[in-house]
Every structure is written in C-alpha cells, then in structure tokens.
Protein: NMI protein
Organism: Lanius ludovicianus
Amino acid sequence: ATKIPFRLNQNQALLTFEDEEVAQRLTKMSKHSVNLDNKTANVAVRPFELEMGFQFELHVTVSGKKINVSEIPELPIPAAWLRDKLELNFYKTEQGGGGEIENVTYNKESGTAVITFLKPGASNNFFGCTKYPFYAEGRCFKLSVSPNFDFHLRNFQPYCGVSKKTILLKGIPEVEEDEESVQDMIEIHFQKPSNGGGEIEKIKYLSKGAAYVCFEE
C-alpha cells in the first residue's frame, strides 16, 4: 500500500470514523461546540484533503551494453588519448573484454567512465568482475568495474487524496489538561450520536509543534 504523509499542526486533530456518512455530516455542520476542561470551545471542522503528490513505479534493470569504470588514474596524457586507451583495453576479448565499443564517456575530474559496447549482452562478460587490468604508460593499473543500471518510471500519476471518513479539527484552544486527556474529551464528544458523531476508528490530537501522519492508500 502507498503511504501518503499529512502534516498535522499545533492545536489540530484528525478523526477517522467507521462510517463515512458521519464524517460527511459533521463536515457540513462546519462549527462545533466541544466541552474541554469545563469550558466550551468552538472548533472548526474541515474536510480532510491530502496535498498534491505523485505516485509511480520505479523499474531498475542491469544494462546489457554498459559498464561503469572508476579509479582511473591520472596520467600525463590528453583526455582523448586516455579515452582511446580505455576503448582499446576493454575491447580485447582475449583478456575478458566485451568486444567492439560504441562509445566511451570519460570524466577526468572524477576518474570515472561509462563504456558502451556495440553488442547487447556484452556487459555480461564483466559480471562478478570488480577489478579489471588497465595497461597504460608501461604500467598495469587495476580499475574498479561495476554494472550500469537503467532506471525507468512507469505508471506516473498525480494524486490529491480526499478521505471521506476523516475530518480535520482546527482552532482547538489550549487548556491546562495534558494532550491525552484533551484527546479523550474530543473523542467522547464526537462519538456521541446526539452531537452528530459516531464510532471513531482513529484519532490524533496535537497540542504543540507539528507531526506527520501517514495514510495508506
């Protein structure tokens, strides 16, 4: 299930009823007089709406044509020459290379490169290989090799959730009682049919600060 966060602010409460008709009825009344700590408090009832957000599926696959290379040493040669040496080095199939190369993207500052082979599945030659020999300037260096991942977003959809069973109370005044006691008073008031209420599934009241409440879609 998708969890959608909602910011609950100070002196607010969220109430979720078993019956959505109760929540809709209370919302239409908009104002309620609630007995809190022997004082009558006028609180506002608002429909509960989640902020606009997005949900999507992220699909990750290992590229069959690309590999990532890192720990490439700094050598006293032009970047274009080093890129050519990388291409020659990873082309050689006799030492476990991937064959013909389509492209080499080299970043001198980070010492990394992405090698793209021409043949699909060529990167499979490097599965399980974390170090690969690189011959340049009469020396042999060990380069780090790792898979290249392709990321695809699917079923990208915006949402603006509205819970028909939940209401938002605003403007709850501060009283001397502790948070739990005030929450109990609110629950007692709104579960009484004589006040237009009904059975409550969940309630969350906040007297100070702010908190995020998660709803499952």
